User: Which sequence fits this backbone?
């Protein structure tokens, strides 16, 4: 069937059902942009709703100082456009946010994406109508739009959370969450600044703010293990080598466990001598990127004794880099081992605490009581600030879905369906929510996100093509298929130290009501295994779905 014929068939079906569009996409980040390109190629009438004023998703919203990649730039961009790969020059091995946003705007320009994107359009609800076999999406401005398919491209970490502290709105100075940073530059020179939170965004922000602030006070509830990024500019010679190597780079990403250029060492921690182990740790610590996390000994995240070895090594590094022994101990995690939570990568982060203009406050020992009009009051002291930065993270994985009133068959709410933990089919479908396709839903393979995005978009697009070619208008996951996949996701978590720790990767967020108990919110299997499962479903004619 030609694209022209597919388009005619899609338009006829949409018109007969009274739909405005064949597909509505929520979000104009990397996944929404690529999905729009593929929907057009299928000849489908599509519309993207984006809450922001521009494309980019994560890289549009997260403009905080120091924001940048922690996976290699050349492994992160889109791989589908060979011409763009040769045209675009990444300036650094780990590109900063402004450069990444320029790149995504370049993609939007090249494919003229904005004509099908409605900006400043935040989705309030999405309801499925089984009679019409389609979705009605209502925006916050009250406007309604109908389509056969609903595709969510809302991201894994896209719903920021503020701490549950009294008085947040009372502060008279400037304050922002890192994921809602102003477009205008913020000048910290001569200012008294507070940063609440020391996760990945907090680490990147702290490194930059400490350079110019008159005084920086960091409120840390839980220290995180951090490792050096080792970023540097890409030379002209490296640029040419990278462009010539893109097929090998993306092939490597397809082969590794989590789509990074790094993958676990086949040796066990105790299969080598202590001297060899120390030398290997030193090599990883001196290497750029996530190698020390995902390229370490194969048993680092399954054997508590092996994890203690690398944790002790990194603790020694922190003590070497931080001059004050008391501060060093405050920065060393005591409640989780190295790599069992998301690993922040840093550039001079620990040296910040050697500066006279930096103070570290333990928010567990002296909790924050409230935000005051002039600053922050803890159980031990009151601080005055000009600026407060909330680096307090996101309601991860399911949070962006919870913010939208999504209702499937018989008016069933998605939030209620997931109350005891997410239940999905391959992270892309939910039983009882027909024609809803999730590009980065819970239980999809994560890691180097764009590699997952491209695969998931291709899988969704192939399903839509299959339905067009066979005159199908409704797709739903079979209950037994969703059950099998959800059980598989749970089995992948067995034995992993990561799932013995409270973090966003285990569905815990103390700033969100009802998310204080660990759940299996993340698929912990390998990306190749995930793709193999999904490929088998497609090759078998989608028997795991009810198609009619």
Assistant:
């Amino acid at each position: 069937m030609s694209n022209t014929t597919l388009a005619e068939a899609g338009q006829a079906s949409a018109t007969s059902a009274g739909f405005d569009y064949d597909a509505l996409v929520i979000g104009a980040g990397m996944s929404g942009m690529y999905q729009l390109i593929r929907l057009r190629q299928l000849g489908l009438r599509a519309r993207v709703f984006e809450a922001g004023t521009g494309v980019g998703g994560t890289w549009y919203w997260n403009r905080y100082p120091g924001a940048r990649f922690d996976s290699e730039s050349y492994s992160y961009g889109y791989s589908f456009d060979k011409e763009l790969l040769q045209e675009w020059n990444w300036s650094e091995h780990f590109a900063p946010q402004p450069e990444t946003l320029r790149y995504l705007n370049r993609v939007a320009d090249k494919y003229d994406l904005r004509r099908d994107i409605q900006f400043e359009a935040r989705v309030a609800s999405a309801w499925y109508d089984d009679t019409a076999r389609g979705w009605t999406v209502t925006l916050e401005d009250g406007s309604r739009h109908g389509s056969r398919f609903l595709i969510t491209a809302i991201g894994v970490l896209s719903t920021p959370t503020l701490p549950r502290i009294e008085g947040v709105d009372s502060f008279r100075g400037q304050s922002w969450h890192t994921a809602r940073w102003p477009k205008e530059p913020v000048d910290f020179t001569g200012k008294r600044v507070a940063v609440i939170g020391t996760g990945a965004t907090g680490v990147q922000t702290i490194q930059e703010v400490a350079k110019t602030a008159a005084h920086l006070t960091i409120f840390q509830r839980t220290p995180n293990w951090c490792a050096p990024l080792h970023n540097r500019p890409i030379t002209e010679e490296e640029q040419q080598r990278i462009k010539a190597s893109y097929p090998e780079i993306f092939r490597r990403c397809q082969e590794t466990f989590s789509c990074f250029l790094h993958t676990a060492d086949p040796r066990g921690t105790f299969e080598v001598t202590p001297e060899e182990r120390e030398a290997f740790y030193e090599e990883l610590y001196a290497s750029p990127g996530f190698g020390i996390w995902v390229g370490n000994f194969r048993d680092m995240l399954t054997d508590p004794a092996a994890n203690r070895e690398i944790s002790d090594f990194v603790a020694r590094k922190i003590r070497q880099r931080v001059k004050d022994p008391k501060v060093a101990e405050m920065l060393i995690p005591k409640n989780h081992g190295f790599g069992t939570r998301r690993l922040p990568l840093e550039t001079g982060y620990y040296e910040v605490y050697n500066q006279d203009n930096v103070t570290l406050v333990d928010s567990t020992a002296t909790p924050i009581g409230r935000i005051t009009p002039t600053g922050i009051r803890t159980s031990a002291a009151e601080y005055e600030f000009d600026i407060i930065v909330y680096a307090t993270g996101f309601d991860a994985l399911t949070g962006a879905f919870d913010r939208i009133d999504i209702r499937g068959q018989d008016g069933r709410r998605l939030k209620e369906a997931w109350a005891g933990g997410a239940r999905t089919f391959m992270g892309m479908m939910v039983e009882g929510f027909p024609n809803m396709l999730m590009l980065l839903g819970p239980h999809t393979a994560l890691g180097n996100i764009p590699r997952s995005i491209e695969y998931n978009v291709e899988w969704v697009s192939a399903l839509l093509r299959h339905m067009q070619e066979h005159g199908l208008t409704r797709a739903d996951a079979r209950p037994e298929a969703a059950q099998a996949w959800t059980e598989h996701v749970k089995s992948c978590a067995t034995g992993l130290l990561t799932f013995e720790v409270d973090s966003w990767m285990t569905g815990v967020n103390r700033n969100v009501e009802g998310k204080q108990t660990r759940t299996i919110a993340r698929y912990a299997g390998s990306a190749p295994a995930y793709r193999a499962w999904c490929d088998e479903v497609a090759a078998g004619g989608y028997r795991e779905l009810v198609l009619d």
